[in-house]
Specification:
The two termini are about 35 Å apart. This protein has a single domain, classed as Ribonuclease Z/Hydroxyacylglutathione hydrolase-like (Metallo-beta-lactamase, Chain A, 4-Layer Sandwich). Strand 4, helix 1 and strand 5 form a beta-alpha-beta unit. By secondary structure, it is an alpha/beta fold. The longest helix is centred in the middle third of the chain and has 16 residues. Helices cover about 30% and strands about 25% of the residues. It is globular and about 50 Å long.
């Protein structure tokens, strides 16, 4: 579906894709398309590009990878000649796990997948001042996780850091994860877009963020599942 933000120029395309209710977010800002992650391979990415070029002017792409996981980077090979941006840690994580994930999840590939690394990295943040967009390090779901904040349209893309009802935890630095979510809460956003929707296809409300923090706090303090469930009733 399309959601218009700026009548003169920009839009956001948000799609719910078939595997794991995954989302794909694309922003049009000024004279570029900004792709947030690239899903499971080149086929859906080429379909999206072809669809766009039928309806709007052909513009260059910039890709933002929120983290290294296979279901967020396999479509990078459809943008091999484009700037692909990620947090510094993503390079090492793809080197460590890229080939094994390609083998393990082979049946999920959509097209011929070649592992393509980001060619631009940032440590803490990277800004596009003219477009009022900031990419920033947000360790949580993984150590290399990063997020995108569209200041003008008040849209926050968080990758897999926020999930409904609870986050999938890989990074065990729960205090750092909680700090990241608290940073999200300090931002002035209207729309928060996760890497995966819930079973109903809903965007997460602020209560979901609170629930994520409670769950991570329970893990941090080594509380039992029963204790956590009592707190969330």
């Amino acid at each position: 579906m399309f959601r218009k933000f700026d009548q003169e120029d920009g839009f956001l395309l948000l799609m719910i894709l078939r595997v794991c209710s995954q989302t794909y977010m694309l922003l049009k800002v000024k004279n570029i398309f900004l792709s947030c992650d690239t899903y499971l391979g080149p086929v859906p990415m080429e379909e999206i590009k072809n669809h766009l070029y039928k309806h709007v002017n052909k513009l260059p792409f910039i890709v933002f990878n929120s983290h290294y996981h296979w279901d967020h980077i396999w479509g990078n090979c459809a943008f091999e000649d484009c700037p692909i941006i990620g947090q510094t840690g993503i390079i090492n994580m793809i080197h460590l796990y890229g080939k094994s994930e390609l083998f393990k999840y082979d049946k999920q590939k959509l097209g011929v997948v070649q592992i393509v690394l980001p060619n631009i990295v940032f440590k803490q943040f990277m800004a596009f001042p003219e477009d009022k967009i900031t990419l920033f390090s947000s360790p949580g779901h993984t150590y290399d996780s990063a997020s995108l904040y569209d200041i003008l349209d008040k849209v926050l893309y968080v990758g897999d850091n926020i999930e409904d009802p609870i986050p999938y935890v890989e990074n065990t630095d729960f205090e750092q994860y909680i700090n990241t979510i608290e940073k999200y809460e300090s931002l002035d956003y209207k729309v928060l877009i996760p890497g995966h929707m819930n079973s109903h296809g809903d965007l997460p409300k602020k209560r979901v963020i609170k629930k994520n923090v409670k769950y991570l706090s329970a893990l941090l303090h080594k509380e039992s599942l029963a204790t956590y469930q009592k707190k969330t009733i």
